[in-house]
Amino acid sequence: MIRIYTITIRILLNLLILTILSTVLLIGKDSDIDDNIYGKYFWFYASMVLFAVIAIPSAIIIKRREKWSFNLPDLLIFLFSCATVGITLSYTDRLTNKCMLLLFLMLLYFYLRIFLSEKDKLTYRLCCVFLVVTGLVEAIWGLRQLYGFADSQHGLFKITGSFFNPGPYSGWLAMVFPMALGYAIFNRKVHEDSHACILQFLTVKSAEISSKLHKICRLLMTVLCCLTVSCMILVLPAAMSRASWLAVLGGSAFIGIIHGLQNKKKSDYFKKHRKKIVILSFAAVILFAVSMVGLFLLKKDSASGRAFTWKIAVQTIIKHPFGVGLGNFGGSYGEMQAAYFASDAGTEREEYVATGVEYAFNEYLQICIETGIVPFLVFLAFVFYVLYLGIKNRNLFSSGSLVSLMIFASMSYPFNILPFAIAFVFLSALCMADNGKIYETRKNPFNWLRRTSFCGLFFLVAASVIITLCAYKICPLHYAYKQWKQMSYGMNNSEAIEEYAKQYPYLQDEISFLFKYANILSQSEQYEQSNEILQHAMRISCDPRLYNIMGKNYQVQKRYELAEQNFRKAANLVPNLLYPHYFLAKLYHEMGLKEKMEAEINIVLTKPPKVESMAVKKMREELIQLTMNNEQ
Hints:
Layout: H1 2-21, H2 33-61, H3 72-92, H4 97-115, H5 122-146, H6 166-185, H7 188-200, H8 206-239, H9 242-262, H10 264-272, H11 274-298, H12 300-319, H13 329-342, H14 348-353, H15 363-371, H16 373-392, H17 396-409, H18 418-431, H19 436-441, H20 454-485, H21 493-507, H22 511-523, H23 527-540, H24 544-556, H25 560-573, H26 579-591, H27 594-606, H28 614-631
Helix pairs in contact: 1-2, 1-5, 2-4, 2-20, 3-4, 3-16, 4-18, 4-20, 5-6, 5-8, 6-8, 6-9, 6-17, 7-8, 9-17, 11-12, 12-13, 12-15, 13-23, 13-25, 15-16, 16-17, 16-18, 17-18, 20-21, 21-22, 22-23, 23-24, 24-25, 24-26, 25-26, 26-27, 26-28, 27-28
């Protein structure tokens, strides 16, 4: 009876772990982007609550005789999470949704650290296999979208998989690719006797079944990985993500190099043919440099835009070395970019490529801006030490996928997308699985935490209490989101304002919610309340439309100086936009400042827009008519 109970608990535990990892494959009922994103979040939160319920009996039944090895990376990620939450609380005075998510991810990390240390490595193998399966599903999904057999999750892009953009989709494939490639290539011993293994399986003695079954599983894993790699190679070029291509190369090269150094025969070959290796390495560097130039020219404007974003991000770090709080990147970055162009330091090229970005397109810069320099260095130390342990423990394929993810993170925004944050936690825990062997030969400074087998159990109880407390905030958050999405477009402004006011305490981190709320307040002539919402939105976003709305609010109130400041800030924030100059022209016309009005009209009429549209045409026609009326 006890054995049945143990097996049941183990099955439930592994199913819940795979349920959390399956977040990436979840999509909403319709094509609404926000609905798909929030659906993944609530799925993750619900899975973590169930995980907390099953974790304690699992620890008592399965792990009662084992001691959890607390070590340096565990301390580093704990310090990073606490510092980040502390810095954010000092800026916002409340536990934001992103802080709550960070706490859940930290708890997930420690859950996995405990349950991935089992000697049979069942959970470890299941996680690796399932990661590869998600890559295969996404690759086939993308191929079906490419050839018109499935709908995209975004109307502007043909290939998105379960994501909303080809960039993150390609990043997921790039992250899984090294793991699939490693299992496909470096399992050569399976092929030597796999055929005989299958033929003899039904006639072997019972003592040999386990060994034969293990070989069959390895063969099936190799076939699965070969199929996954093939599908990824077919779809990745079509997605046109340069960051994912570099991530694939980097992660795969990492596995190849480390595997060669750990293999004695290959290591001896490298020593005997050093000159050849040096020449080939030099040729590879030249080829890489040429490829980088080609990748830059492939999407020149996009590459220039990201380079400019990184430039402003570095300046933001210098101004805010102690961080601005989790989720406040947009506001601090926007202030710096507006100040940069206001000082006339920007070039014509920079003015053309500048945008009101949501992300830094470099997670290292964004983490440094939001958390500060010291917590960022702690995070880097965690990543490097985890990779070190991954190599020492020979968890090479997990380490290669983590390297691929970190390369992709240097040119994109994966940690702002929940499935990638979950994958980062999983890969970190997989790299560290069974690392107790390292500390058997080396003194572990945290050995005092291993003296009792109840250390892990105590953490699980504490984590379950934290998750339960956070669940009280998640439930109203889920309800508020559903209410927001169900609001009728036929609702009058007073009814809409009442509903928005009810949901505001829970959705004040959602920029699209704040934008719509402020707009409705402005339309209802509640200008002061609208500006209060806009002020909050400006702390988390650098969307120039926020400044335009606030400028119009002040203009209606005849507070022309403040209106001008906001329109001018919108114009400085994204200089290639024409709308701020259009609003300034109308403001100066109302103020009777003819020269300033003509200057702004001239900008709108002569400056080439980044994208031609009917809105630009109507705007110009209106200003031409305004000029003619003014002359009369």
